[in-house]
# Entry
Amino acid sequence: MILNRFYETLTREELEQLQIERLQSTLNRVYRYVAFYRQAFDARSVDLSRVKSLADLARLPFTTREDLRKSYPYEMFAVPLRDIVRIQATSGTTGKPIMVGYTKNDLRNWTECTARLLCSAGVDEHDVVQIAFPYNLFTGGFGFHQGAEKIGASVIPASNANTEAQLMIMRDFKTSVLICAPGFAGRISSTLASAGLHPENLHLRVGLFGAEPWSERQRTELEEGLHLQAFDNYGLTEVIGPGVAGECHERSGLHVNEDHFIVEVIDPRTLQALPPGEEGELVFTTITKEGFPLVRYRTGDLSRLLPEPCACGRTLARIQRISARTDDLIFFAGLKVFPSQIEEILSAAQGTTPQFRIVLDREAGVDTMDVQVEISEALPAFDELKNLEKLRDSLARGIQNGLGLQAKVSLVEPRSLGGEGKIRRVVDRRAEKMTTKEP
Ligand code: DLL
# Structure
């Protein structure tokens, strides 16, 4: 099913014409209203009147997460706050989050984008859609909610209720579509199995999963464990949230909503554009957004453009499922965190920057995080057990309060994690246990 046949099946020439018109208008707006872009374009002597084709994009500067972090809270907004009707946020690399704003038009376009992905997964007005993404500053809950209502489905904002409550709703309300992170879907599946229930007791037929990396193996397990057809969905808060790209029934690549976002793939080292088929970092330029437009935003996500036409009939380009990231972003229990954010909390509590290591593992299908922190020799009464316990608890509390993460903190002997600068910051043992099933 194609929701918006006009835009989803344009010829390449028609699409590029539309993109360039929308790009020009975006560039003029950001130059006029966002100081960051005015300075960045002026520094490169960009003449906007000479941006006449998509190839000219390459002359424009990139925008990075660091640029957005520095613009906290509102400096990247391209309209006055009175025109902003929604604010969402993503966690920053350190300290402050990245705030994004939507105008009424932005919300309309975002709704259209997620509605398209729901439609391409076969969701319609007869479906009961259960959204098990949190409804908060994170974009997953609200983003899909709007789209599912547009389709006319019956939407249940189950949000972050626990797996037992999700299952009860699912069974009693006859949920047919589940939308959440694949890791959480795995936990729902495990809870179902441990309750001795068969997936046929449920009425699920479609799952839209995303917001974190997952594999084909996880797809198979979720399909077996929950009796549904699973679709991959990709997006990021800075660009809009969910709705940037998603799979159609062919399930071989995610169609990018290219009438709203121009996608490029670049070599993250040379920053040069790569030809279709080659793996590199995804870069997006928004071309309809009013509140928070972005030019050449470096996502840190590695993927490739799939050049062949898709059998579904859509002409929108496809990207392959995200293979990895260029940075050390950790995906943990539905949350995203950079080691630098943990470091910041540890140093604030300890008064010094401690050596630390983050060990990620999986026990009984659930992610665990152990933050191993070297005790400073300067700490008074290092040998007093009570002091150590206090320190450990206060670090764990700091991580919980600051980042919402439930992590175990282990205090280890000075210099036991290795010499200065040699520590492997993150040890992820989950890959070999990347299964949604109980061991
Ligand atoms: O995760 C938006 C979203 C919500 C997408 C619901 C899909 C479904 P952020 O919290 O800003 O936004 O995180 C964005 O998550 O840069 C990727 O690294 C990762 N990510 C998102 N979707 C996928 C996916 C939302 N399908 C960051 N596969 C992105 C792999 C994904 N990684």
Q: What stands out?
A: Residues 435-439 have pLDDT under 50 and may be disordered.
